[in-house]
Amino acid sequence: MNSNHSLIYLQPDQQTTYSYNILDQIHVDITVLDNPFHIQLDSLFSMAARMNKKRSFLFVSKVLGKHLPVDPAVSLLTGEALAALYAEKVYGMRHPYIQDMINGITGKSTPNLRLLDYLIELPERTVFIGFAETATALGHAVFEVFENARFFHTTRERVKGLESAISFEEEHSHATSHRSYIDPSYLDNLDPVVLVDDEVTTGKTALNIIESIHAKFPRKVYSVVSILDWRTEENRRKFRELEQKLGITIHEISMISGTIEVSGASIEGEQNKPAFPALETDLEVLDASGLEIPLTPYHSEEGVSAPYLKDTGRFGMLDSRQTKIEEWLEPLAGYLAGKRRGSRTLCLGTGEFMFLPMKLASLMGTGVSYQSTTRSPIHPSPSFGYAISQAFSYRSPEDPDITHYFYNIEPGMYDDVFVFMEREMDEADLEPMIRQLSKVIPSIVIVPLSRLSKEG
User: Fold this and answer.
1) In what order do the strands lie in the sheet with 282-285?
2) Would you call the peptide bond into 133 cis, given omega within 30 degrees of 0 as the criterion?
3) What is the DSSP letter of 348?
4) Smallest Cα–Cα separation from 186: which of 4, 276, 316?
5) Which one, of 276, 277, 278, 266, lies nearest residue 377 by Cα?
6) Cα four-point dihedral sign 274, 278, 279, 285
7) Structural domains present in the chain
8) What stretches of 163-230 show up as alpha helix (H) in DSSP?
9) How far is the C-alpha of 209 from the C-alpha of 178, rounded, in Å?
10) How far is the first Cα of the chain from the last one, in angstroms, to the nearest whole number?
11) Are 316 and 339 spatial neighbours (Cβ–Cβ below 8 Å)?
12) How far apart are CA 229 and CA 249, in angstroms?
């Protein structure tokens, strides 16, 4: 059996072990130690083989909106649930609608975005940091629930004329270097820092950024918030050792906490390429120049002429800015909804550019799914229960030396796709991506946000 799992009860009401067999080559045993929301693991992820010698497998999230299509409301509510868990664990603040959130995330009820209207005012000003590229949207979704908060996400990008306030490495990632283009005032204080990631495997990334921050901007309290936490006892001990070394406190908060044991070798070689012929495809590049979308004066070092957006979080954001975002998102979402060709629409974020497309998708009506392109190479397989059935690769529009991917799209799934680009790209640079999308979706709409308005 491939990627099916068996449930084994070790002791009643205590630890539970799940076993995953990935393509008969990689075996993963998961022992769950803590599950505060009592969520079934199958509601949160599936398993796949990753083409990376540093790490042979991947937890493919069903709630993140990265590799798999999701209802965008599910991803946004996942951020709110993590925010509620943080507020309860650190400050004893109970969210009144937590069970409604969990029911929406796990499919027990229709996800209700009105739950996001409930804001949590933190007793002390706090800075939230999302990790690129996978957790940029998750970090933002956690942050948007709070008052008395600031946010930024790390980035793989190199921004012309700016120095990174802090930098660090993520050893197991396919792209390891993180940068942070924020005003130093975001960190030059004693405020608690909350690091948000989708998954903590060893905790090394979190330790790296804590040490990087602390070397320049020391403080007393840090938190690591994630959907999944698979650290070993030795990994957890390193957190305690860093606490002692720096004289700090580190809170660790997750939806699922446990340990994993892995056997088997990584799967090398090329992906199987989809054999779908190109469809008769309509292509449109939108120009909604009448809509006001705030831009920055900053540009990439990679030669892309269009500027970065203001409200991604890459350059920092205050909680008061959240209402301003919705003022320009709602009319844009209405405009895009009017461009839909049918009842089944895919909204596709690109790379780090995830949160704003996700919010737009949530405002574009029913029948809208959301996912994002990624740098992560994953082996596809039609095996029953395996997470990734189809994989499409193409040259990155921003950097021809980088390969990007999107997954699990087949002909007939969608009537149209809206591809959200933070910045305008030359059509020739977009052609490899468009060629892959044209195999599976008959109507492709490119939405380059940074060319839609004058600088604001």
Assistant:
1) 282-285, 443-448, 416-421, 345-349, 368-372
2) yes
3) E
4) 316
5) 266
6) positive
7) 5-59 (no CATH), 72-256 (3.40.50.2020), 282-302+317-451 (3.40.50)
8) 204-216
9) 9
10) 55
11) no
12) 18
Task: Name the token pair of 230.
Answer: 């698979």
Residue type, 101: M
Taking only the tens of pLDDT, the chain with its 456 residues reads 344 433 333 343 456 889 999 999 999 999 999 999 999 999 999 999 998 777 889 999 999 999 999 999 999 999 999 999 999 999 999 999 999 999 999 999 999 999 999 999 999 999 999 999 999 999 999 999 999 999 999 998 899 999 999 877 655 444 457 899 999 999 999 999 999 999 999 999 899 999 999 999 999 999 999 999 999 999 999 999 999 999 999 999 999 999 999 999 888 766 666 678 778 899 999 987 778 899 999 999 887 789 999 999 999 999 999 989 999 999 999 999 999 999 999 999 999 999 999 999 999 999 999 999 999 999 999 998 899 999 999 999 988 889 999 999 999 999 999 999 999 988 899 999 999 999 999 999 999 999 744 444
Distance, in Å, from the CA atom of 29 to the CA atom of 11, rounded to the nearest integer, reads 16
Helix (H) or strand (E) holding 84: helix 72-91
Could you tell me the sign of the dihedral formed by the alpha carbons of 427, 430, 436, 442, in that order? Answer: negative
Distance of CA 373 to the CA centre of its chain: 11
Crossing angle of helices 72-91/98-105, nearest 10°? 140
Q: Which DSSP state fits 295?
A: B
Instruction: Give residue for tokens 């706090």.
Output: 126
Q: Taking Cα atoms as reference points, which of 393, 385, 330, 391 lies closest to residue 362?
A: 330
Instruction: Tell me the C-alpha to C-alpha distance, in Å, between residue 269 and each of 248, 340, 406.
Output: 44, 38, 18
Q: Measured between alpha carbons, how far is 446 from 418 in angstroms, rounded to an integer?
A: 6
CA distance 434 to 444: 8
- The span from the CA of 128 to the CA of 238, in Å, is 22
Under DSSP, is residue 16 helix (H, G, I), strand (E, B) or coil?
A: strand
- Amino acid 351 reads G
Task: Give the C-alpha separation, 202 to 235, whole Å.
Answer: 6
Residue entry with tokens 């929301």: 37
One-letter amino acid of 190: L
The torsion angles phi and psi of 232, rounded to 5 degrees, stand at -75, 170
Please work out, in degrees rounded to the nearest 5, the angle formed at the alpha carbon of residue 174 by the alpha carbons of 171 and 179.
65
Spell out the residues 6+ positions from residue 114 whose beta carbon is closer than 8 angstroms to its own. Answer: none
Please give the C-alpha separations between residue 84 and each of 126, 237, 251, 434, in angstroms, as whole numbers: 15, 26, 14, 39
Residues 18 and 7: beta-carbon distance below 8 Å: yes
Q: What are phi and psi of 208, to 5 degrees?
A: -60, -45
